[in-house]
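Input sequence (189 aa), recorded before submission:
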Amino acid sequence: MGLSMSYPCGPRLSFRDFATADISAVHEYASDPEVTRWSTWGPNTLEQTIAFVEDAAHAQLKADRTAFSLAAVLDEKVIGSVGIWTTDPHDSNGEIGYTFHPAYWGNSYATEAVSTLLRIGFDTLQFARIGATCHPGNIGSIRVLEKSGFTLEGRLRSHRLVRGDRRDSLVYSILREEHAGTLAETTAG
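Predicted structure, C-alpha coordinate format:
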Protein backbone atom coordinates (compact mmCIF):
# COMPACT_ATOMS: atom_id res chain seq x y z
CA MET A 1 0.00 0.00 0.00
CA GLY A 2 3.02 2.23 0.54
CA LEU A 3 3.35 5.97 0.25
CA SER A 4 0.55 6.47 -2.26
CA MET A 5 -2.18 5.17 0.06
CA SER A 6 -5.01 7.63 0.41
CA TYR A 7 -7.53 7.36 3.20
CA PRO A 8 -11.18 8.30 3.41
CA CYS A 9 -11.88 11.69 4.94
CA GLY A 10 -14.64 12.75 7.30
CA PRO A 11 -16.67 15.93 6.98
CA ARG A 12 -14.03 17.88 8.92
CA LEU A 13 -11.04 15.61 9.40
CA SER A 14 -8.56 14.16 6.98
CA PHE A 15 -6.25 11.25 7.73
CA ARG A 16 -2.73 10.59 6.51
CA ASP A 17 0.36 8.64 7.38
CA PHE A 18 2.64 10.24 9.95
CA ALA A 19 5.82 12.09 9.00
CA THR A 20 8.72 13.07 11.24
CA ALA A 21 7.54 16.69 10.97
CA ASP A 22 4.56 15.65 13.16
CA ILE A 23 6.65 14.87 16.26
CA SER A 24 6.04 18.21 17.98
CA ALA A 25 2.26 18.15 17.41
CA VAL A 26 1.98 14.54 18.62
CA HIS A 27 4.15 15.16 21.66
CA GLU A 28 1.93 18.08 22.68
CA TYR A 29 -0.90 15.66 23.52
CA ALA A 30 0.99 12.37 24.01
CA SER A 31 2.94 13.85 26.92
CA ASP A 32 -0.21 15.14 28.68
CA PRO A 33 -1.16 13.03 31.74
CA GLU A 34 -4.86 13.87 31.29
CA VAL A 35 -4.79 12.56 27.70
CA THR A 36 -3.07 9.32 28.69
CA ARG A 37 -5.00 8.81 31.93
CA TRP A 38 -7.00 5.87 30.55
CA SER A 39 -4.37 4.66 28.06
CA THR A 40 -1.99 1.77 28.48
CA TRP A 41 0.86 4.05 27.36
CA GLY A 42 2.19 7.46 28.33
CA PRO A 43 2.55 10.12 29.30
CA ASN A 44 5.28 9.97 26.67
CA THR A 45 8.79 11.21 26.97
CA LEU A 46 10.02 13.02 23.87
CA GLU A 47 12.03 9.91 22.96
CA GLN A 48 8.87 7.75 23.13
CA THR A 49 6.96 10.16 20.90
CA ILE A 50 9.83 10.23 18.39
CA ALA A 51 9.89 6.42 18.34
CA PHE A 52 6.10 6.24 17.83
CA VAL A 53 6.07 8.74 14.95
CA GLU A 54 9.13 7.23 13.28
CA ASP A 55 7.71 3.69 13.57
CA ALA A 56 4.36 4.84 12.15
CA ALA A 57 6.10 6.70 9.30
CA HIS A 58 8.21 3.64 8.40
CA ALA A 59 5.24 1.25 8.58
CA GLN A 60 3.72 2.81 5.48
CA LEU A 61 6.56 1.33 3.42
CA LYS A 62 5.47 -2.26 4.11
CA ALA A 63 3.73 -3.86 1.15
CA ASP A 64 1.81 -6.31 3.38
CA ARG A 65 0.77 -3.73 5.93
CA THR A 66 -1.72 -4.90 8.56
CA ALA A 67 -1.58 -1.89 10.91
CA PHE A 68 -2.30 1.76 10.23
CA SER A 69 -1.35 4.50 12.70
CA LEU A 70 -2.64 7.68 11.12
CA ALA A 71 -2.54 11.38 11.86
CA ALA A 72 -5.96 12.98 12.32
CA VAL A 73 -5.70 16.38 10.66
CA LEU A 74 -7.92 19.44 11.03
CA ASP A 75 -7.13 22.55 8.99
CA GLU A 76 -3.65 21.15 8.24
CA LYS A 77 -2.89 20.63 11.98
CA VAL A 78 -2.37 17.19 13.53
CA ILE A 79 -4.89 17.00 16.39
CA GLY A 80 -4.81 13.29 17.13
CA SER A 81 -3.70 9.78 16.35
CA VAL A 82 -5.97 6.99 15.17
CA GLY A 83 -5.19 3.40 14.45
CA ILE A 84 -6.62 0.23 13.00
CA TRP A 85 -4.82 -3.08 12.92
CA THR A 86 -5.34 -6.78 12.26
CA THR A 87 -5.70 -8.89 15.37
CA ASP A 88 -6.42 -12.14 13.55
CA PRO A 89 -5.90 -12.31 9.78
CA HIS A 90 -7.40 -15.80 9.46
CA ASP A 91 -10.68 -14.76 11.08
CA SER A 92 -10.64 -11.24 9.54
CA ASN A 93 -10.68 -9.46 12.91
CA GLY A 94 -9.33 -6.00 13.60
CA GLU A 95 -9.16 -3.47 16.37
CA ILE A 96 -9.19 0.32 16.56
CA GLY A 97 -7.83 2.99 18.86
CA TYR A 98 -7.79 6.80 18.95
CA THR A 99 -6.29 9.66 20.94
CA PHE A 100 -6.96 13.39 20.52
CA HIS A 101 -5.47 16.61 21.82
CA PRO A 102 -7.67 17.80 24.75
CA ALA A 103 -8.30 21.17 23.05
CA TYR A 104 -10.45 19.21 20.55
CA TRP A 105 -12.40 17.01 22.99
CA GLY A 106 -16.17 17.31 23.02
CA ASN A 107 -16.49 18.19 19.32
CA SER A 108 -17.25 14.69 17.97
CA TYR A 109 -13.87 14.40 16.23
CA ALA A 110 -13.30 10.95 17.75
CA THR A 111 -16.72 9.79 16.51
CA GLU A 112 -15.88 11.10 13.04
CA ALA A 113 -12.51 9.33 13.19
CA VAL A 114 -14.10 6.04 14.25
CA SER A 115 -16.50 6.27 11.31
CA THR A 116 -13.51 6.61 8.98
CA LEU A 117 -11.65 3.75 10.69
CA LEU A 118 -14.70 1.52 10.21
CA ARG A 119 -14.74 2.33 6.48
CA ILE A 120 -11.04 1.45 6.24
CA GLY A 121 -11.57 -1.74 8.25
CA PHE A 122 -14.64 -3.04 6.48
CA ASP A 123 -14.11 -1.69 2.95
CA THR A 124 -10.33 -1.72 2.49
CA LEU A 125 -9.10 -4.36 4.93
CA GLN A 126 -12.22 -6.53 4.56
CA PHE A 127 -12.61 -7.22 8.27
CA ALA A 128 -15.64 -9.18 9.45
CA ARG A 129 -15.39 -7.82 13.01
CA ILE A 130 -13.74 -4.76 14.55
CA GLY A 131 -13.15 -4.53 18.27
CA ALA A 132 -12.11 -1.87 20.73
CA THR A 133 -11.28 -1.88 24.42
CA CYS A 134 -11.39 0.92 26.92
CA HIS A 135 -11.10 1.51 30.65
CA PRO A 136 -14.50 1.41 32.42
CA GLY A 137 -13.91 4.96 33.68
CA ASN A 138 -13.31 6.39 30.21
CA ILE A 139 -16.83 7.77 29.71
CA GLY A 140 -15.82 9.78 26.62
CA SER A 141 -14.53 6.72 24.81
CA ILE A 142 -17.55 4.65 25.84
CA ARG A 143 -19.85 7.31 24.33
CA VAL A 144 -17.83 7.37 21.09
CA LEU A 145 -18.03 3.60 20.70
CA GLU A 146 -21.75 3.44 21.48
CA LYS A 147 -22.54 6.34 19.11
CA SER A 148 -20.53 4.53 16.44
CA GLY A 149 -22.67 1.38 16.67
CA PHE A 150 -20.38 -0.80 18.78
CA THR A 151 -21.89 -3.35 21.17
CA LEU A 152 -20.56 -3.90 24.67
CA GLU A 153 -19.49 -7.54 24.86
CA GLY A 154 -18.27 -7.59 28.43
CA ARG A 155 -15.62 -6.72 30.95
CA LEU A 156 -12.17 -8.28 31.16
CA ARG A 157 -11.18 -8.23 34.82
CA SER A 158 -7.61 -7.30 35.71
CA HIS A 159 -6.89 -7.28 31.97
CA ARG A 160 -4.04 -4.80 31.73
CA LEU A 161 -1.00 -3.93 33.82
CA VAL A 162 -0.69 -0.16 33.47
CA ARG A 163 1.92 1.86 35.34
CA GLY A 164 2.06 -0.81 38.06
CA ASP A 165 -1.72 -1.21 38.54
CA ARG A 166 -4.03 -3.97 37.29
CA ARG A 167 -6.96 -2.56 35.29
CA ASP A 168 -10.19 -3.89 33.90
CA SER A 169 -11.14 -3.33 30.26
CA LEU A 170 -14.51 -3.07 28.59
CA VAL A 171 -14.68 -4.97 25.30
CA TYR A 172 -16.71 -3.60 22.39
CA SER A 173 -17.22 -4.80 18.83
CA ILE A 174 -19.08 -4.11 15.63
CA LEU A 175 -19.69 -6.62 12.84
CA ARG A 176 -19.60 -5.92 9.12
CA GLU A 177 -23.36 -6.48 8.76
CA GLU A 178 -24.13 -4.19 11.70
CA HIS A 179 -22.03 -1.44 10.15
CA ALA A 180 -23.71 -1.95 6.78
CA GLY A 181 -27.13 -1.73 8.50
CA THR A 182 -26.13 1.49 10.26
CA LEU A 183 -24.99 2.99 6.95
CA ALA A 184 -28.26 1.97 5.27
CA GLU A 185 -30.30 3.60 8.07
CA THR A 186 -28.22 6.79 7.84
CA THR A 187 -28.71 7.05 4.06
CA ALA A 188 -32.43 6.22 4.24
CA GLY A 189 -33.07 8.73 7.05
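Checked by second reader. The domain at 14-188 is CATH 3.40.630.30 (Aminopeptidase).
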